[in-house]
């Protein structure tokens, strides 16, 4: 927990930039901060302060810097008056470090590889069709987020990881409560304990009834001594709390982006060879990763003549790095034919996104399925999407469409 006093700095602490209301963003301040104050002090909506790094080169280095660790979402920000034992202690894969983390990454590299994900494409497409079948024949306008984009990544994740999809009614509200532990500590602690119990029981079941899934793969790795039980549990917990949310936000923003630009949806529908590049560009352009990655310094770090002290929180803003004009020509513009696209959406270094190939496959299949099943998809006139404007990273909560 952070006990280091706040460093004294010259320029004022600013409120964490938020996207303009009713939009996915990005916040308007990115450009100014990159130019004038690449390492700013920001106050987060939850009250704590952190360093906010916005330039591509800085973000690229910081996110892979071993002097920065990932504090547990229940340990940071520090809450005055809470003893360490009070915290719900939600340990996911991101908080694992050193040999345990490396062993778990090794054990999971095969099932998350490009080849394995490619072999799963038919299953991923079946999940999309299963959700779109009733949608296509339903009433218009229909809500594409609630009926398709929200459940789709959960269904895909459950199938690949080996979590019964029917159980999502049980774990989704608990995952929300665990993540909301910052607000309601008691509820968060209870939810975390229940999610843990659920994963422990599921791993046990995989021992008795093995399947063709990632948890079974981990159970075998455990039996061979390649990973320990705690690591397997933290992977399961990571999937329950983080294996689908980001995908949902990206998919909702991607579909909205295409439908809001005249001709973009139809162009991609009719030129499918552009899809791989377009998916990369959407991943770069969509600003969901606005201060989502929180790091904490374990030693002092000098940057731009300032000292990030041990204990300080650092937010490498991936979404701002992805718009940096020094790296991306017309960084704020969407160019579905962009070829050179070294975006940082999946992070970098030891903790980079292990699900990146899966996330790409989900976006590709989501768009292909929509092009095939709803070729005339369009935003429903007079029915605006609903946004939750408090959040630093945003996607529409509803997306009324006609087809
Ligand atoms: C568009 C969708 C996604 C985006 C943009 C995304 C982005 C990220 C980023 C930036 C990180 C690194 C965080 C850090 O440095 O601390 C990360 C980590 C991670 N992601 Fe993703 N992610 C996505 C989808 C997924 C999916 C579908 C899965 C799995 C089902 C997944 C599983 C993970 C895991 C387990 C980690 C932690 C890796 C580690 O600590 O070693 N992600 N993700």
UniProtKB/TrEMBL annotation:
Region span, Disordered: 1-22
Keyword Membrane: no
UniProt KW Metal-binding keyword: yes
Keywords, sorted A to Z: Heme, Iron, Metal-binding, Monooxygenase, Oxidoreductase
InterPro entries reported in the protein's UniProt record: Cyt_P450, Cyt_P450_B, Cyt_P450_CS, Cyt_P450_sf
Domain of life: Bacteria
Pfam families assigned to the protein according to its UniProt record, in alphabetical order: p450 (PF00067)
PANTHER family: CYTOCHROME P450 YJIB-RELATED, P450, PUTATIVE (EUROFUNG)-RELATED
Family per similarity comment: Belongs to the cytochrome P450 family.
Name of protein: Cytochrome P450
Native source species: Streptomyces macrolidinus
């Amino acid at each position: 927990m952070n006990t280091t006093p706040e460093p004294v700095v010259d320029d004022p602490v600013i409120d964490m930039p938020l996207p303009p209301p009713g939009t996915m963003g990005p916040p308007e301040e990115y450009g100014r901060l990159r130019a004038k104050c690449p390492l700013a002090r920001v106050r987060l909506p939850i009250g704590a302060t952190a360093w906010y790094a916005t330039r591509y080169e800085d973000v690229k280095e910081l996110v892979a810097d071993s002097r920065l660790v990932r504090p547990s979402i229940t340990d940071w920000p520090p809450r005055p008056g809470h003893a360490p034992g009070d915290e719900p202690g939600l340990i996911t894969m991101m908080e694992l470090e050193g040999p345990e983390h490396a062993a778990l990454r090794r054990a999971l590299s095969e099932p998350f590889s490009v080849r394995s994900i490619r072999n799963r494409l038919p299953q991923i497409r079946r999940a999309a069709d299963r959700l779109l079948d009733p949608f296509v024949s339903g009433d218009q306008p229909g809500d594409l987020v609630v009926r398709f984009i929200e459940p789709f990544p959960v269904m895909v994740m459950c199938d690949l990881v080996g979590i019964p999809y029917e159980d999502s009614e049980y774990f989704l509200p608990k995952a929300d409560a665990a993540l909301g532990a910052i607000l309601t500590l008691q509820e968060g602690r209870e939810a975390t304990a229940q999610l843990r119990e659920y994963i422990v029981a599921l791993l046990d079941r995989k021992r008795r009834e093995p399947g063709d899934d990632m948890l079974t793969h981990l159970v075998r790795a455990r039996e061979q001594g390649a990973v320990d039980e705690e690591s397997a549990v933290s992977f399961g917990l990571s999937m329950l709390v983080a294996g689908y949310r980001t995908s949902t936000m990206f998919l909702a923003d991607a579909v909205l982006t295409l439908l809001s630009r005249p001709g973009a949806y139809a162009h991609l529908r009719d030129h499918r060879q552009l899809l791989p590049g377009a998916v990369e560009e959407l991943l770069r352009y969509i600003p969901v990763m606005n201060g989502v990655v929180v790091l904490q310094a374990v030693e002092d770090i000098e940057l731009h003549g300032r000292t990030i002290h041990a204990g300080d929180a650092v937010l490498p803003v991936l979404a701002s790095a992805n718009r940096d004009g020094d790296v991306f020509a017309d960084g704020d513009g969407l160019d579905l034919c962009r070829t050179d696209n070294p975006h940082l959406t999946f992070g970098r270094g030891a903790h980079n996104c292990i699900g990146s190939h899966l996330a790409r496959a989900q976006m590709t299949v989501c768009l292909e399925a929509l092009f095939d099943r709803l070729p005339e998809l369009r935003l429903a006139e007079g029915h605006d999407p609903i946004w939750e404007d408090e959040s630093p990273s945003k996607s529409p909560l509803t997306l009324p469409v006609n087809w």
